[in-house]
Please model this.
Amino acid sequence: MTEGPLPRAEIDVWMARLAAGEREVFTLVFEALWPRVFGLCRATLGNDADAADAAQQAMMKLMERAADYDPSRAALPWALAIAAWECRSALRRRTRSREVASSEPEESASHSPTSVDGARTLEANDPESELVRRDLVQRALDAMNELSDVDRATLAATFFDEPTEVVGATLRKRRERAIDRLRAAVRRLYGLD
Model:
């Protein structure tokens, strides 16, 4: 296993070599991408078991589709997009299985937890809270897919402590612009102001 996060440029080179058919870099690509893919899946799905399943599916698809990788684009956003798709699929399966398994009548709103001001509070184990969280994650992923590779890489560097080629004021400005574009994408996709 490699020590610490691997520079993206090196991942791009290895992924391009894998796409070109050099199978000896398979392990290097896997070791470089696994922690990042698993981290995204864990953050999205909320538990290690589901995250491991989704991450494994994502890595299988990534390796199966290695020949489809475009070396002119960054490998990490491509890999994370595949992982995000697997997370969305897992969330859909989870929702469908709960709908089928749910045979108990819903609690009335009067029995749900409320705050001091009477507004409904969402607890960690509350199914409604989980659905709201999933919906927010889905919306965030959809909006992220609207961004450029540079914006996605900047946000990944910001939120996943990924190394980046730029630092200081340049990184702060890129982050500010990427977040502004992310907000605009959310507004455009979901009509939120």
Observations:
- Confidence is low (pLDDT under 50) at residues 107-122.
